[in-house]
Design brief:
Layout lengths: L1 E7 L4 E11 H18 L3 E13 L2 H9 L9 E5 L3 H13 L6 E4 L2 H7 L8 E2 L7
Parallel strand pairs: 2-3, 3-4, 4-5
Antiparallel strand pairs: 1-2, 1-6
Helix pairs in contact: 2-3
Length: about 130
């Protein structure tokens, strides 16, 4: 399991791409990376991309707990989850249904759908690093 953080600084979009097996522990590492990225770079839109996830082992309890926490990004920030796998799509939709007051959290199946919603043709993502609190 690994992840990649990228930023399109012109359009102020951060993308977190998760690869491999996504477990509860890994889910929280990604959450911390996004939280720290938001603090360091102040992007105004976010894509969490599960396209390269091979297996998903996230408990519904952790999803509900995360949904109860204050959002990382401001409420007017569009946050998109790209979840092509049925299981990950279901988990993202569960989060969407239990997270209150997050009208700008959307779940899509493809990166093309995400870019269409962001009205972007050719974003220029560059790798970034953030400090992870341990």
């Amino acid at each position: 399991m690994s992840f990649r953080l990228e930023l399109d600084s012109v359009n102020k979009i951060v993308r977190l791409s998760l690869q491999g097996e996504v477990t509860d522990e890994f889910f929280w590492v990604g959450y911390e990376a996004l939280r720290n990225c938001c603090n360091q770079y102040c992007p105004c839109r976010c894509i969490v991309d599960y396209s390269e996830a091979t297996k998903v082992k996230i408990s519904s309890g952790d999803v509900r707990y995360l949904a109860s926490k204050p959002p990382i990004f401001p409420l007017d920030c569009l946050t998109l989850n790209v979840a092509p796998q049925d299981e990950m799509y279901g988990i993202a939709r569960m989060f969407q249904s239990v997270a209150e007051n997050r009208p700008n959290f959307l779940v899509v199946r493809t990166m093309e759908e995400a870019l269409d919603l962001l009205e972007l043709k050719s974003p220029k993502f560059e790798a970034i690093e953030v400090r992870l609190d341990t």
